[in-house]
Amino acid sequence: MLARAGLKVTASQFLSLVEDAAKKLTSPPTDPAAHFSAAERLALTDAGLDLAPLTDTEVDPRARTVAEQAVLRDTALSVNQAAERIGVDSSRIRHRIGDRRLIGWKDRGGWRLPAWQFSDNDVLPGLETVLAAMPIDQPALVLANFMATPQEDLEIGERAVSPREWLLAGGSPRQVADLAATIGMPA
User: Fold this and answer.
1) Scanning 8, 35, 91, 157, which has the fewest C-beta atoms within 10 Å of its C-beta?
2) What domain range is 59 assigned to?
3) d(CA 156, CA 147)
4) pLDDT of 168 higher than 90
5) pLDDT digits (tens, 9 = 90+) for 41-70
6) pLDDT digits over 36-49, tens only?
7) Is 93 exposed, middle or buried (0-12, 13-18, 19+ CB in 10 A)?
8) Structural domains in the chain (count)
């Protein structure tokens, strides 16, 4: 299953990544109601919110985030891999990160760059325009999900496509940048 998804990782390595991500991203389950005063609990439950702890049969909603984080981390490129992919020296990749023409995060082994930023042999067309509009305070996972999720404002034929697919098909980077500028803003 992992190979079909394009992940170059063994099942054991993947589970280790998931465990590591779970430890970093989650805290032990608590009673949600414990975070609020009695008056706040009453107001929230009157508004229709369920403050009951998860039951043993309910899936923890944080599980998807942990899995997505593990995949993002596993598919990210190192500086050397990114340099090799686009045919430049590794110092050029670090300069692009510094200039925010590529995004990445520092990990144990150095910089990691989300794979969505690259085509098979170059950076994603229009990437600089899109990155310039993306809020800098958003985590890599939020940006990756935005770039991979079909947007109703981006259509090829009659089908909504993801920003990444739109750019690869030659769509206007300005349209994606306009959408990207709203990431993290209230709806």
Assistant:
1) 157
2) 11-71
3) 15
4) yes
5) 888 888 888 888 877 787 777 777 888 888
6) 889 998 888 888 88
7) buried
8) 2
